[in-house]
Specification:
The chain is of the alpha/beta class and 437 residues long. It has two domains: 271 residues, Mur-like, catalytic domain (UDP-N-acetylmuramoyl-L-alanine:D-glutamate ligase), CATH 3.40.1190.10; 147 residues, Protein-Tyrosine Phosphatase, Chain A. The protein has 15 helices and 15 strands. The strands form two sheets. Strands 2-3-1-4-5-6-7-8-9 form a nine-stranded mixed β-sheet, with helices on both faces. A six-stranded mixed β-sheet has the order 10-11-15-12-13-14, sandwiched between helices. A hairpin with a 5-residue loop joins strand 10 and strand 11. The longest helix has 23 residues. The two termini are 22 Å apart.
């Protein structure tokens, strides 16, 4: 009965979403990829919002139910049948009587299983399609025949492009760059973004912004800066509250979207000044006893773990600590991916904390890379790990916390925060529905 109700709700909301798109004809930017979709969506939103009426997917609404909810401007009703009925009614009222609607939609498009994106081709038409990194071992690969099948599913977004639309690709990933050979329409425009020289929109001169003295331990990072170059013109962009070259890429992707729409670089930079990195994506949070937390707890994948650990290496803190949880939905690639993460952690951190059953392979990978056993600590759950780490944190420590969402690694961050009362504002999965789980 529950599955029938869900199917009925999705079918009705999708029909209402199609009718709303047909009625109001908004311009659409859609983002997919295996890394950085939500951050990219948020960065694009702030660039467009500076000059037009725009709506974005809330949080990570990127599924078969999330997209219609975003298009209709409705909230997730979670497990309340009555609230879903109200959503259906409100959607119908918008179809029949609505008069005001955003000029632009910025939609995050996910692919948890085969067919998730391809099913959109029949009803979602986009003006700009953005594809971020497509790593060798992507998240959700467990439900696909191969990593290549995941890429094929993500590439289906290209088929949603309107004639004359723009395809924006992350050029530094060869798997994403290869999609340049897809020609959705003869007059489609392709733009490349990234850090490499051949990019149409390029980030360069990436540097850490470090604390001067007050409020944070002197020398610890508070953000990052880089130069963004578009059509031969360059301007500095600074992001405070997040860190890592990969965490800067959403801003470069947003600049590419702005460029595709003919926005001057100065307007793009002004918009990016309002970009606030999403919770749980390389967010910097003050920790106990003068420590600093890198909160990357939203989700995890092999590529994202590698990038986060590289950031830890770049900081060169007094002591680097990595708390890594299981990476889920990797299927037969799981053991090898966890061991590779452990080997990388051995190079990046002084102490390694793991959470979960699969993370035992992280430990094995670290040991194989000659990390000393006394520097590695294993736990079954995040709450226990957080309670222990709370005792170890010290002045000048930088603590990276990362794991798949079901591992609830945000519990560790909450234990380590200097101001835990700020958790509802700063951390992921703080909704009442999540707290019940």
């Amino acid at each position: 009965m529950r599955d029938f109700f869900k199917t009925a709700v999705v079918t009705i909301l999708r029909w209402e979403a199609r009718m709303v798109l047909r009625k109001f004809k908004p311009k659409v930017v859609a983002i997919t990829g295996s890394v950085g979709k939500t951050s990219t969506k948020d960065a694009i939103f702030v660039v467009l919002a500076k000059h037009t009426h725009v709506r974005k997917s809330q949080k990570s609404f990127n599924s078969e139910i999330g997209l219609p909810l975003t298009i209709l401007g409705l909230k997730n009703a979670w497990n309340s049948p009555a609230a879903w009925v109200v959503n259906i009614f409100d959607g119908l009222m918008l179809v029949l009587f609505g008069k005001h609607y955003p000029e632009w939609l910025v939609l995050e498009v996910g692919a948890d299983r085969p067919g998730d994106i391809r099913s959109l081709v029949s009803w979602l038409k986009v003006d700009v399609a953005v594809i971020t990194r497509l790593p060798e071992t992507p998240v959700h690969v467990e439900f696909f025949d191969s990593p290549e099948a995941v890429i094929e599913e993500k590439a289906a977004l290209i088929e949603c492009l309107r004639p004359g639309g723009t395809l924006i690709l992350f050029a530094d990933d060869p798997r994403t760059r290869a999609l340049e050979r897809h020609e959705p329409f003869p007059d489609a425009k392709v733009l490349l973004f990234g850090f490499s020289e051949e990019c149409d929109v390029r980030g360069s001169d990436f540097t850490l912004v470090r604390a001067a003295s007050v409020g944070r331990k002197k020398g610890l990072p508070v953000g990052m800066s880089a130069m963004v170059t578009v059509a031969g013109e360059s301007a500095p962009v600074e992001v405070i509250g997040s860190i890592g070259a990969h965490a800067f890429l959403p801003g470069i992707a947003a600049a590419a979207v702005g460029h595709a729409l003919g926005m001057p670089l100065q307007h793009i930079v002004e918009g990016l000044a309002g970009y606030e990195p999403p919770a749980g994506r390389m967010r910097l949070i003050p920790g106990l006893k003068g420590s600093l937390i890198i909160d990357d707890t939203y989700n995890s994948s092999p590529a994202a773990v590698e990038a986060a650990l590289d950031t830890l290496i770049a900081i060169k803190p007094k002591r680097a600590i990595a708390a890594l949880g299981d990476m889920l939905e990797l299927g037969r690639h799981s053991a090898a991916a966890h061991r590779a993460a452990g080997a990388h952690a051995a190079k990046a951190c002084d102490l390694l904390v793991t959470v979960g059953f699969r993370a035992r392979d992280i430990v094995q990978g670290a040991l194989d890379a000659r990390m000393k056993d006394e520097k590695i600590f294993q736990y079954e759950n995040a709450r226990k790990a957080g309670a222990e780490l709370k005792n170890w944190a010290g002045e000048g420590d930088v603590i990276l916390v990362k794991g798949s969402q079901s591992m609830r690694m945000e519990y560790i961050v909450e234990e380590l925060m200097l101001e835990p009362e700020q958790a509802p504002k700063l951390l992921v999965r703080q909704e009442r529905e999540w707290k019940k789980r």
